[in-house]
Amino acid sequence: MSETALRIRGGRPLKGDISIQRAKNAILPMIATSLVVEEGETVLHGVPEIEDVERAFELLRAVGAVVHHDKSTQTVRIDATNIHTGVLPDELTSRFRGSVLFLAPLQIRLGYVELPGSGGCDIGTRKIDFHHRGFARLGADVQYYEDGRTIIELADKRFQSTLLYLDFPSHTGTENLMLGAATANGQTIIENASVEPEVLDFGNFLIEMGANIQGLGTHTLIINGVDKLKAVEYTPMPDRLVAGTIMMATAITGGDVTIHDIEPNHLRIVTAKLEQMGVQIDIDGSSIRVRRPLDTPLNPINIQTHPYPGFPTDLQPCIAVLSTITNGTSYIRERIFENRYDYVDALLKMGADIIISQNDVCIIEGVKQLKPANVRAESIRAGAAVLLATLAADGESIISNIYQIDRGHEHIEDLLNQLGADVTRIEKQSTSPQPIW
After folding, report:
1. Helix segments in 102-190, DSSP class H
2. Domain count of the chain?
């Protein structure tokens, strides 16, 4: 049995100018929310060709929506006029955690939703019961069954206003409850809401649809429910996580890359940490130039992940890879997901010096150079991390299970090759009976 892999011939500095895809984490809730529109088409521009988006389209079609994705223009048109079921199929939800974003739209539109399970990256406990508790406070009836199913039913197909509080400012939790509140009967307040840029973008999308939301960008949202949301045309924000990944890829290869059409303010902490490490960064409007001559040593760094505006957990694996070649000892503290160190085994195989302490601190002693190896992408962000490591290693490496990379990165080999890398998509013999999602 064969599988698709990436072959990387590393040791080449990245150089050039690029633009970045639109943000997966903003697009997915917008795709799901299209289901609440009873007539007309929701139109999204700049939608990347990535696996998580494809799974979202499959879910849309499974419940009866019509989806047209023009990949040449990256335009998506969604007609949800004739959706007919709130049952989400297990074969899709088991490998796509973004299915949780379909809970509120289907309740609003059909009055119920049935969720067999959710998948995605195995990076630690990401319970969704707080979504369910929020829906219950909004008036829904949540029932759990022994076979693992969850059925949520909404009387009169309308949520009721209430006070909501998130113990942790989850971005998907905020998005689900924000949508529920947008069509609730009365005024809902959400405390400790997420202020991630993607959540703000989604909030602006809802406002375009006719929602009445106050407080975007703060931890307190005041939402006055409206009867219906309408179809709109919208262009999501650029993907700050892909931009951050390319910034670190440039630094680890000793390159010189300018990234255009992004929002530098979304990357302030990332920029500050890279500058501490000795990377040269220049910002000009919506462009960021990243430079590091190969003869410039990198300084070790201390990182602790935190919800925005703190250092993003999704970029922790990449900066950890950069830390493997510093002149000293770096300390990485993951405070969001306990299994986010799923890239460590691959880096050890490539010659990195890493230990995980008893209090779960990733301690990295810099080495002179990483060596090529055959490694595996365990999750989206771990896949990005091992990709950076192979770009820095002088020689040929193979990355398997690249479905994980493709979940969030559009044609990554084309993007990197545009900057002078040597990355090829190949077929290799699989050592496992099926891909691990």
Report:
1. 103-110, 129-137, 171-182
2. 2
